Structure formats: structure tokens, C-alpha cells
Amino acid sequence: CREIGLEGSTAEVPDAAADLVLGSSRGVALPPSTGRATATGGAALWFGTLVFGGSTVALLSVLARHPHRATFASLAALLSVAFVVSLIPGGVQLRSASLVADGRPLPKMTAGQAVLIGAASLAVSPLLAFLLHIPVAATAIVSVQMVIAIPLAAKQGALLAQHRFRTLGINLVIEGATRFLIGAVAGLTLGVTGLAAGLCAGTFITLIVLPYRRSDVSVQDRPRTSIVDTSLSLALLGLYVQLDILVAPSVVARSS
Question: Tell me: the pLDDT tens digits for 201-210?
């Protein structure tokens, strides 16, 4: 054992641990296992992101087999709405990562907030359905899905803060796979509303299976940007990217 001074006191620790502490303080590289774990986690996160993003492309490829052109246009428009809606919790994910990294608890959505978000989502659903020529039930399901997506985004942000990239990557694979499998089956058999229910079910399953454990980090205070501004910026960016697909059902309906 070796004695190490810690804030005015001394403590006896094993030689191996002492070498690690003293070596890291002198700028010596940490053991190769740490680098390998980070590289493996980064690869898993990259693969998970690829699977999650590719699930939408795969869904479109499968749903393109639908015999009715107008229905397929509505299915594609619904996927675009789901994409825009999914970007809104992105601000929550970034804020959650910031809070957990500063040693604060995982942010949780209260029952009142869930009711408010659900009510607002239901209120705008008829307007979205009218503008996009999509069933009201489908837009309502996709909009209310934020009540599930926000807690999921908070947990995923916490994983980023804890550098648990491998767990987050696996979770993204699960989300992409469930969205594709359930969404494809429900979309082909039940149409636009079935696709909306399938996407919502995939998000719910992903939330249930995602583990979370709080890490011991000293609490730090620092200024933070507005979570509303971040979420709206991401949503507007997604709306701009998907605008052509969103207007497709109206064009198809007029040409029919």
C-alpha cells in the first residue's frame, strides 16, 4: 500500500490504485480498456442511430406496396408528422443530459404537464388532419405520443451524460426495430391510423425496456438556455425538411 494526500489528509490505497490516480493527475494515459470501452460504445451508438434513422426509410419501402396511391401519400405524410413531433422532445434530451452531467436528478414529467401536453396535442389534431388530408385519429395518436416520447428523451439524455453509449445504442436499435415491425404490419393492414398506433407502440416499448441508474456526481450550477427555444428550433427545422412530403396528400387528392 501507499499513502496519498487527499485535501490535507492521507489515506492508504493499493499500489495499483495509487499509480492510476497519480498517473492520471500527471497526464498519463488511462488504461487501454477505458479507450476500448469508449470506442465500443461509440460504435454501438452510431449503429443504433443508423438503425433508427433507417427504420423510416425501410417503412416507406414496405408501405409503398400499398395499392392505393392516395393512401400511400397519407402514410408518408404521417411519417413526416411523426418525424417533426419526435424532434420536439429533442430539447428535453439535451436538457436532461446537461442536468444529469451536473449531478442533478433525472427530470420527470408531472401528471399536470402530461395532461396539458395531451390536451394541446388533441386540440391541434383536427387542424393537422384537415391540412394534411390524414384521419384525425392518426394525427391525434402521433401528437399525444409526445407524452411517451418526452420521458424517453429524458432517459436517453441521461445515458449520454453518463457516457453509457452502448446502452443508448441498443435502445435506439430496439426503437427502430419495433417502429418498423409494428408500423409496417399495422400500416398495411389498418392504414394510416394503424401506422400511427404502431409508431406509438414502438416508442412505448422502448421506454419500458430502457434502464436508468443515477450516478454519483457533485452538483454544479451553470447558466442554461431555454428548453422551449431548443425544442421549437428542432421542430421548425424538421418541418422545413419534410415540407414537400407533408403537402403531397393534398396534391394527390386534387389530381385524382
Answer: 999 999 999 8
